[in-house]
Amino acid sequence: NFLYFLTIVNDARRLMRLPALLWMAPKRKEVSRTLIPDDQARDLKLALKQAWEAVRNTWAQNDAIRAEANRRLGGEAPMRLCEKEERLLENWAYFHRIQQKTGSILPTTNDLIGDWKSRQSFSEHGLSLIEMRAMIFPTVEEADAAYHLALANSGWNSSTLSNLDANSPFLLADHPKDAKQIFLSPDEDTEVTLWADKPRARGKKQFCFALRKNVSSTPMIVERYLVRVHSLREALKKDYQAAVAELVRMKADCETVEMIAKQVGRVQEIRRGCRSVWLYVDQRSHINWIDGMCLPKYYRKGTSPTSYLGLVLERLNQRRHQQGKPAISPV
Question: Residues 6 or more apart from 14 whose CB is under 8 A from it?
Fold first, then answer.
């Protein structure tokens, strides 16, 4: 920052009995904040809503397939499934067997490949690592779909939504006067809250609420998402306890400062994950989470990586082109 620099320089010159520098701060570059037209904004929000509906439908289908797998294990007569559903059921049955064998809700890739000679042999038998994990855990695109629609409907900025504390007992609650409504609030001092601090507003609190029947509202998205990732959060909490225990051991054994500092960073990182609402399983079979930064995550052959919004806009603009409508600019 120029003013901080100039203050330090003038303090030093004052000690040397030299006159202060009267430099003028450079003019700030004007930031262009052009908003897209209202009709385009509506189309974009509709696309985000449709993406979330697709996620909910996928989860419902996966839950039904897992329920069918349990019925078959119980000796009940099998229901008729289509070819895709049978493949997903076989993937889930295999994944569930490895879960039971390893005692882990999220087996590693090596655990899943197991005795298969290679990934190619694994895939040739209709098994897919991505499909297995997606049967029960959100993918990065599903997490992004939930997060971006919640952001669009809340009116909050990304840092506020990202800082929701999933462990807070005040995170979600019914409206005190209307059971049909649910609150999402960043104020833990009230009785009905889903809360988060605003980092740049000195801890100022915000809240929002909606009717329970509105499944696309921010509170209902958060409520549904918390249920979906409950087992992931419990696994992260165990990782956190193990990391803390390892840190205590390292301090007792007088490990090097560098090793202890690295472990402290790991403990802090896992703790952030335990707090985050927006957990998902990435392609490396690691538990990850959305931190509010719009970093490129989606890679396609022949194109540069893009953000989730960029991906949504690309698909939406393809439809708009077919309809003879102008493309929506990047937002």
Answer: 20
pLDDT by 10-residue block (mean), the chain, 331 residues: 88 92 83 79 95 97 95 88 93 94 92 85 90 95 95 87 84 63 51 50 69 86 94 95 95 91 94 94 92 75 86 93 89 73
Please tell me the pTM assigned to this model: 0.82
DSSP character string of 78-128: PPP--HHHHHHHHHHHHHHHHHHHHT-SS--HHHHHTT-S-HHHHHHTT--
CA angle 159, 140, 56 (to 5 degrees): 95
**160 with 202: CB under 8 angstroms?**
no
Q: What is the DSSP string of 122-191?
A: HHHTT--HHHHHHTTS--HHHHHHHHHHHHHHH---HHHHHT--TT-TTSEEE-SS-TTEEEE-S-TTSS
| CA–CA separation, 165 and 307 (whole Å) | 24
> Are 117 and 77 a contacting pair, CB within 8 Å?
no
**CB–CB of 135/295 below 8 Å?**
no
CA gyration radius, the chain: 25
- Number of C-beta neighbours around residue 276 at 10 A: 25
